[in-house]
Amino acid sequence: MASENDSPSITTRPIVQSSVQSNSKPINVKLVLLGESAVGKSSLVHRFVNRSYEDNREPTIGAAFLTQRVQLDDRTIKFEIWDTAGQERFHSLAPMYYRNAQAAIIVYDITKSKTMTKAKSWAKELQRQANSNIVIALAGNKLDLVEGNEADNTSVDSEQHERQVPEEDARAYAEEAGLLFMETSAKTSENVDTMFMEIAKKIPLEHLIAAGRTEGRGLRGAGNVDLMQPATEPQGAGRCAC
């Protein structure tokens, strides 16, 4: 597997270059990350926004807010990302963050089957209570932990990092539930940018136009992160979990 320095997705350039409407006003898209604690939600969003990875992040308290832009052929999307805490005591706060969201990423750890069970619960809750047009992606994170072990069962960490959620099972569930699906690694950046790009492409244009008319309503964060430079956490945001 390529190192971070070799990976084309670890870059300070915009994620997607486009000559069409490159200077257009960005369309704000509210995106929420959900999933059990320690599945890698914060690591995924920091990889996407800051182009960085940090081992042993402290758990998120409440939620953290970050932003990032992506350029599609016909429009610029500015993701306003709410990274929510995974601890059960914060579950009751989740509707405040996914209310009026145009997109959501539900994250699970492919080495822990119980986190997939929780992910399915989040998917049902979003489909029942969130915006009817919300685009939901299912992300099986920590792919880096199993890629080497699946090829070599004699690995020292093979038992500790054994895959518990088969990719084909997760993909079949996502297709049945109408979710986007991708396995990712926040550590190596594998499929992280691709996942956000696919979400941006999936959001209907009419949904984006409607969102533009209601810009400024609901929860707004103080953070404003530019891809060209590292981000700083907005004042008052919670610490992030790996």
UniProtKB/TrEMBL annotation:
InterPro entries, alphabetized: P-loop_NTPase, Small_GTP-bd, Small_GTPase
GO molecular function, one term: GTP binding
A Pfam family this chain is assigned to: Ras
The keyword Nucleotide-binding appears for this protein: yes
Signal sequence, start to end: none
Gene3D superfamilies according to UniProt: P-loop containing nucleotide triphosphate hydrolases
Keyword Repressor set for record: no
Keyword set, alphabetical order: Nucleotide-binding
Protein name: Ras-domain-containing protein
Source organism per UniProt: Lichtheimia ornata
